[in-house]
C-alpha cells in the first residue's frame, strides 16, 4: 500500500504551503519546457512551492542506439514514472510526441498545453545559406534519425540522401556547423523555438513535404491517475483545441502502433470551430510505397461540460474532465476510423515490410 507523502513548506510570514515536485529530464530542452510549465503554475497558484527535480533516463544514456530500433518503449519516461509512483515527484513534463499512446497503469496525462508550430524545420549548414531542400545540390546529405522524416522527404526530394544523426539538439547543431558531414538537418520547429534558435530555421515543411509526428509541438503533464488534487491543479492548463487534435492523432497511432515502428507513423490535424480534420499516412522506409487519407468529424454538437462522473475517464492516456466528453469521443473515433480506413487499403502490408527491413538494417 502506498503512503502518500505530502510535503509542506513554511514561508517567512509563517504561512504553510504545499510543496509540488516537478520531475524532468536533464537536457536543456527538457529543462526549458519544464521551467515554462512551472512558471505557468506559479502564476496560477502563487501559494504553492514548486521544486524541480532533474533525472537521467535510460534513453539519455544509450544515445548511440538508433532511435528507430528502440520503438515505442518508454525509455525516456520510465525513471520519471517510477519517481511519480514513489511520490518523489508529483508531475512530470514531457513532449507529448515522446509519450506512448498507452501509458502504464496508474498514470495519466493531466494536461496537454497549447501546441506550438507542429511542423518540421530545415536547418542549413552555414555554407548553404539561401538554399532550400529543392535547390540543394544532388546527393546532398541530410541529417535525421527519424524514419518518418526520411521516408517522406526521400519521396518528395529524390535528389537528396539521408543519414542518421543523434544526440540532443545542442550536439546536433554542433555536428552540423563544425563538420562537413551534413548539408542540412531536420528538426521540430517547436524544439528549435524553445531553445531560442528560430533564426536558424530556413524552411518550415508543410504537410505536402513532411507530415509531423503524432502530438508534435505540444507539451504534456503526466501525473498519478488517482491524484485528484494534482489532476485538478494541472487541468486548467489544458488547451481544448490541442487536446482534441492530439486525442485524434494518438487514437490513430494507437490503432497502428502494434504494426508500426511507432511513433514513426504520421499525421496532421486541423481543427476549425465546427470540424476536426485528420490526415494520416503510412510510408515504406524509402517512401516509394505510401497510403494517405483524410477524414473529418463534427465536434461542435454539444459544448456543455458533462456532469462530473466519479470515475476519471481517460482517452488515449489523456484525462480532460473539464472539457466536453462528446467532442473528445468524436476525436478519438476519428483517429480510430482513419487508421481502420488505411488498414482496409493495405497499410498493414506496408508497415510489416518496413518493420522487417528496419530490423535487418
Ligand atoms: C520522436 C521522434 C523524435 C523525437 C521521431 C519523429 C525525433 C528523432 C530524431 C518520437 N521524438 O519525430 O519522427 O530527429 O532523431 C523530440 C524532439 C522534440 C520532442 C526533437 C525533434 C521537440 C518537439 C516537440 C525527439 N521529442 O523532433 O526535433 O516537443 O514536439
Task: Walk me through the structure.
Helix 9 runs parallel beside helix 10. It contains 11 helices and 14 strands. It has 361 residues and is an alpha/beta fold. Bound molecules: ligand DPM. Ligand DPM binds at residues 67, 95, 97-98, 144-146, 148-149, 187-188, 190-191, 213, 216-217, 263-264.
Mean pLDDT: 87
Query: Bound compounds, please?
Result: ligand DPM
Give the fraction of residues assigned to helices: 25-40%
Structural class by SSE content: alpha/beta
Global Rg: 21 Å
GO molecular function, one term: hydroxymethylbilane synthase activity
Cofactor: dipyrromethane
Protein name: hydroxymethylbilane synthase
Pfam families: Porphobil_deam
Write the layout of secondary structure elements.
Elements: E1 7-10, E2 16-25, H1 28-44, E3 49-55, H2 58-61, H3 67-70, H4 78-85, E4 91-95, E5 107-112, E6 120-124, E7 141-143, H5 147-156, E8 161-163, H6 169-178, E9 184-188, H7 189-194, E10 201-205, E11 219-224, H8 228-235, H9 240-257, E12 266-271, E13 275-283, E14 290-298, H10 325-344, H11 347-360
Bound molecules: ligand DPM.
GO molecular function: hydroxymethylbilane synthase activity
Protein name: hydroxymethylbilane synthase
Cofactor: dipyrromethane
Short description:
This is hydroxymethylbilane synthase. With 361 residues, this protein is α/β, with parallel strands linked by helices.
